[in-house]
Amino acid sequence: MKHTLFLSAGLLILAACNGAGDEGSESADTLRADCLTIANDEEGQEEIADIGTDAEGFCDCAESMIAAMPPEDQEKAKATMNKVATGMTETGESTEDVVGKMMGDAMSRPEDTDAQATSEGIRLVGQMIDDIGDGFEDTGSCPVA
Question: What pLDDT, on a 0 to 100 scale, did the predictor assign at position 10?
Fold first, then answer.
């Protein structure tokens, strides 16, 4: 189940970028920390090992994949990953559990714009994770250089 990691891939709240200066660096640090939280989930570690990398390699690739996205998708992916990582940290639950709750909540409110954004973010990150897995399985490396 590739989607376990983020079907669990998931993830939501747009992290508002305030201030000037190092906000790009701060955003990158936050993305890295969120990715490592998600990638170090027990099931995530197994899946990442199965594709032939580790949490660091996976997160390097995820950062490259997100950087290659259009700006709106970058924000959705970052926000989704942040929401999942925050949920995992706050509850001690697995990625799959946190994302499952997010999807359940979003599906119960199909007309709500926040719920739609959550669903879109989870689908976007899930596709990114599939692409990362396919790239490592097919070529032994990240699909984005």
Answer: 37
